[in-house]
Amino acid sequence: MLTSFSVTSASRLLIAVVIVWLLIIFVITGPLIGWSHSREDGMANGDSNGNGEMILARLSRAMNELTALKAQNEELRSLLQNYLPIDLSPIESSMSHSSTSDAKKSQLPSQEYELTRRRIETNVHELWHFLRSKTNSSIMQTVNEMKHNLLYDLGIIENRDKHWRESELKSLSELVQNKIKELQNPSSCGSAQKLVCQLNKGCGFGCQIHHLAYCMIFSMATKRTLIMNAHNWRYAHSKSKSSEAKGWNSVFLPLSETCLDESGSTRVSWSSAPDLDSYQVIDLPIIDSLRSRPNYLPLSIPEELSSSLIQLHGSPIVWFIGQIVSYLMRPSPEMTDYINQQKDRFKFKTPIVGVHVRRTDKIGTEAAFHPLSEYMKFVADYYDRLDLFNERKQNNKKVERLVYLATDDSSLWAKEVKEFEDKGYVFIGDSQISQTASIGRRYSIDSLRNIILDVWLLSESDFLVCTFSSQVCRLAYELMQTRTHGNSQFAKTDKSSAFYSLDDIYYFGGQTDHNQIAVLSHTPHNKQEINLKIGDIIGIAGNHWNGFSKGLNRNTKENGLYPGFKTIEKIESAHFKLFEPN
């Protein structure tokens, strides 16, 4: 991670400031000593009136200058304090405990500061996308260096409050995890209010996990224990009654230690009763069939956490979903062993870029074909950034260009990887894993373990290059937000910007409207662009990754392109019963 001034360097700077301050005082007060002697000599000679008024005037001027100097010194002290780590400030360490706490609070970054800092980084990327679409490759080399240099400086600013940010996100994560654990382990399963989720949606692994995450969101919002019925789960399926143990429980921990029984005294489907609170058990349909759509559906976050989460993270909904899927995907002991064995076999280490290439059944239906070379442009850009970071720190050692490759197309290893290995990239992964992801073997136990392995290692990468049209890619991105303590010196606490998608922006299947707010007006330059006025609400449909996004101005009903930097995200929140004070 980028480093700020050390305590030793800051202490030396403080000493230097004090010395300079004392010298200035000496320069200012030195003449006063001479004036005092002159006055005494004059009085001895009977000349007490000639210089008296002059001396008083000079003394008054000197006192005014000292007052101004004191104010400047306080300003210098404040500026210097900003370069000292908050928890190691020698000034604060000399204070009482209560005074230290107040001083720390006064120096913590405000929500406006954090939002502005992240917005600058976002706009640097937006400007880079715009220039990349308009500029030739020779000029882009300089533009790339300028971008990386700006990101390095922004990293120094971000790093000032790194420990505070890590601590706050960790506390928030522990709160959410503890609340889910408490919800899922009622003292009496027989009397607990329950929500039943059928894990039988006709889709792939990432989609299945997101279906279960949607069910957990409903459980948290209504404060009902989630009961998962996985008997018909298509992965590692068996017709025997123990199929659940061979399926879900062979790779993940059960959702509860005390309550797995879905029975109850009264039961109803979600949409069939007006007073759902009076029923003990509710059956939840898939999100696509939901008719009564409550306001706590994604992209809403719990309003009880919203203020802290908006301040701490660049994509609050992704962090929140990440917390949910991290609970759902807690690996079983056998799965944990498998992940660790494969990491040892691959020699998995950081920094590393995760690349996910989804092909087979997605091509031509949900996604376009992208050769590996398209992904590698952004892998190269990321490693160029790290090399420049090292150079700024006067470390000329090049970073090893390590790539974890996850794909369902095993031919990619033989046909496309070698070109980049010849350029110095080191790929880890396994073509055999790709073969188990083929359509014919996708639901076997080997395929299940390997898709979990891919998601796990992609989420532990420092940077992710993929297509957000893939549920596996979005799942890895969500889990990535829970990896707040990376081993790499380049690891970021907030990983919301640690990705590049070749197609879609992030979304949650079945989500409510994704809206943005215009913070600058825009007059169209062609027929494809739309008008914006400050305060307009825009429903974003996608980012074209060229400085422009596409969306619907909900105020004017115009549909078209607009500059991305002229908008900010509109964060929605809703009441979650789980987070009500006890």
Describe what this molecule looks like in 3D.
This protein is α/β, with parallel strands linked by helices. It folds into five domains: 7-107; 111-159; 162-169 and 309-501, Rossmann fold (3-Layer(aba) Sandwich), CATH 3.40.50; 177-292, no CATH class; 515-574, SH3 Domains (SH3 type barrels), CATH 2.30.30. 48% of the residues lie in helices and 12% in strands. The chain is built from 19 helices and 16 strands. It has helices at residues 7-44, 52-81, 90-93, 97-107, 111-134, 137-159, 162-184, 205-222, 243-246, 248-251, 303-312, 316-328, 333-346, 372-392, 411-415, 417-421, 431-436, 445-459, 471-480, and strands at 194-198, 225-229, 267-269, 281-284, 301-302, 353-357, 402-407, 426-428, 463-466, 499-501, 515-518, 537-543, 548-553, 559-563, 567-569, 573-574. The protein has a five-stranded parallel sheet, sandwiched between helices. Strands 14-13-12-11-15 form a five-stranded antiparallel sheet. A four-stranded parallel sheet has the order 2-1-4-3, with helices on one face. Helix 12 crosses helix 19. Residues 1-50, 79-100 and 239-245 have low confidence and may be disordered. This is GT23 domain-containing protein. GO terms for molecular function: alpha-(1->6)-fucosyltransferase activity. The chain crosses the membrane at residues 12-35.
